[in-house]
Amino acid sequence: MLPFAARCLLLLLAAAAAAAAAAADAAAAAAFELEEATVDSIRRAFADGELTSRGLVELYLSRVAALDPALHAVVELDPDGALAAADRADAARRLAYEGGGALPPPLLNGIPVLVKDNIAAAGGGGALNATCGSLALVGSRPAGDAGVVDRLRRAGAVVLGTASLSEWCNFRAPGIPAGWSPRAGQGKNPYVPSATPCASSSGSAIAAAANMVAVTIGTETDGSIMCPSSYNSVVGIKPTVGLTSRAGVIIISPRMDTVGTVSDAVHVLEAIVGYDPRDADATRMASQYIPEGGYRQFLNIDGLRGKRLGILRKDFFQFPSGSVQQKVFDEHFNTISFSPFSWFLDDAMELKIPNMNIINDAVQSGERALMLAEFKLSLNSYLSELATSPVRSLSDIIDFNNKHPVEERMAEFGQSYLLQSEATDGIGPTEKKAIAKLNKLCESGLEKIMRVNQLDAIVSPGASAHSLLAIGGYPAITVPAGYASNGVPFAICFGGLKGSEPTLIEIAYSFEQATKVRRPPTLQHFVI
Q: Where is the chain membrane-spanning (predicted)?
């Protein structure tokens, strides 16, 4: 969409002034390197006068227009709202830098962000749909911003639009390809188009990896931040459940769901954590974990030094003999040559989590039964709070799907999870038994292993520990670790107990800085 000044009939003098300003913005933006831009590099460009927020929004809108028809990472954009917010950010920054006693710009001032399509964003030029990828929710309007979106706006972020996802956060039916939804189509891995983008926050990871925006927000129940971050070569933080509010977010399980970030992770985490009365119980409990002074203080290049790690080799490190993955992880953990772990390998140990076969089986562990009941309760509650909506219950959504079949190649998958969820009746004896079993698996598993061995973190490849970390609401950070022989990215994961984000950030940042393996996709398969 054109800038507002170019769409209005103004006096000749005003039009000329607007054109001159637009030309200045374009020249400044041309000097700025968009690819691999970070929050810090953008802030420097703002401060040095090389870039305006309006110019940055226009650059990202152009890149989305060029790439998204092939990548399917974006569901919906709000260009008018984003450009208006960018202009406000530019004005606030000018006021702050020109003096007059104004406060310095907030952390994310003028920086565009994409939020996953299950997160309500009511502000801007017009409320964005939050549809969880479903056509049934097109036309719905939230009464207000989700808690995390409100915090993003207060931190100065510009909401550019919504990122694609697996429909219903991959909870429509088993077998549906990861990253697919009726609204956005099939999300594509920007490194290897035939490879999976993985799990439900796929659009957030694809967009970040392809530099379609610097900041993206995702959500995770069980692997939905960790897996796409790994397969798309971006850093992802899955926070402790309750550290970020789920108010105004379509979730599956209050026990396990958390809102996190898959790019410029620590800056964004700092902006979105905190108590929210609309998600009071979870956020009140988790607020005790927020460190005074925020999370950026833990971006310590020597953060690995002195840490005690548990390497989950059994059941997790399973690679083909001679594979790139095996060589990379052997180098890190066996100190064949320089490794970021060589500082503390005497304090690292190989450990085995008991009952991993049960934890990894959602039916045996009780996770599936609990998720089915919680999804219906959570979704119906979310729908009841919408300002307008064509559907008001899970039952309405099932009816909509029956009347409007999805594309033919998806028809075979049906909507079995939705049907099974609709058949539940709250948290009854079956669900309480599942909760008790999950609690026991946590206490005798990760919590005991870390306590007995006095660990700072556990280490696993990619998203292999997603269920282990999901069932207890534990945090994790995934960091790019390399690229397989076919070019598909893979990652390393650092996980810990609730509230261990400061330690995990130190470890993950130190590893990232010691290895620096992340490289942008060449996008030779896509037309820019």
A: none
